[in-house]
Amino acid sequence: MDLKPKSRHLNRSKLTVRRTVDALAKEKAQAFLEELVANLGCAIDLTLQTNSSLWMRIERSLFKIKLSLHASLAEGSPDIKQALCLYIKKGAKAKEASSLLSQYLDVHAGKKGKAPRPVQIQTKGRVYDLDKVFSEVNRDYFNDELKLAITWFSPRVKKQRFATLGLYDDKRKLIKINQTLDSEKCPYYFVAFVVYHEALHSVHPVTFCASRGKRVIHGPEFKADEKKFSSYALAKKWQKEFFKIQTRMR
To answer: Which of 43, 123, 155, 197 has CB 3.0 to 4.6 Å from 130, enough for a Cys bridge?
Structure first.
């Protein structure tokens, strides 16, 4: 006797729970898989993970759907799970579902844990004083409205394929600038540009794009504001010509 469609789909489905998922009971994960199979009407290879940069990935084949989902979705409300199923079926066309998932994941899929440890602040460098640089950037571009700390940081790895010139730590409200830029070879306008870039992250926080299943760090509004820096073209030109390795700001 043939199995019922639901049972047949479930028997062909597979559940993988990554080791990083430490708070989700196996019974709840299995129940989540069964709920997805029942609502989507097909076999599913489901991987639950806690990747902080890729919260959702959907791969479709003729008879099966492969899903890699942030584990927080398994603990969502019925509305969240319904929105997830609708989004899997219709993609970006399901605008309300997409928006609801974006808001949920932005809150629940971010990095959780204890309050960040204090960081030793070092603003005075051999050539540049970051306090002065940030004060000028804050005055000229943000009407002195930003309440952020700033410090130099030293790269831990000397030999690398790329260098991070600046970082923004939203939890600490802290801008970190690579100490490599504290040099006579680095023009002031470039240091100011990196500071400006990182300061923009406090104005344009990271968002989640449900259609791509990824965080958006430098969205269209961010890039538009970045170009408002007075020496933008000059700074980008110097960055490209001076560094021998790939560089980035985040």
So the answer is: 123
* Residue range 108-141, pLDDT digits in tens: 886 555 556 778 899 999 999 999 999 999 999 9
Predicted confidence (pLDDT) per residue in 205-247, tens digit? 877 776 666 677 888 999 999 999 999 999 999 988 887 655 6
Q: Which of 190, 204, 152 is nearest to 174 (CA)?
A: 152
Residue 2 has a pLDDT of 38
Q: Would you say the C-alpha torsion 78, 79, 84, 87 has a positive or negative sign?
A: positive
Structural domain spans, the chain: 5-108, 130-249
91: phi > 0 → left, psi -120 to 50 → alpha, else beta; which?
A: left
Packing angle, helices 188-203 and 232-242, rounded to 10: 110
**In whole angstroms, what is the distance from residue 45 CA to residue 59 CA?**
10
The string of DSSP codes covering 43-89 is EEEEEEE--SSB-EEEEE-SSEEEEEEEGGGGGS-HHHHHHHHHHHH
What is the architecture of the domain spanning 130-249?
A: 2-Layer Sandwich (3.30)
233 contact partners, CB below 8 Å, separation of at least 6: none
Of the chain, the end-to-end C-alpha distance in Å amounts to 58
Kindly indicate the confidence band of residue 92, based on its pLDDT and cuts at 50, 70 and 90.
Answer: confident
The H or E element that residue 146 is part of is none
Which DSSP helix (H) or strand (E) runs through 152? Answer: strand 149-153
Tokens encoding 3: 């199995």
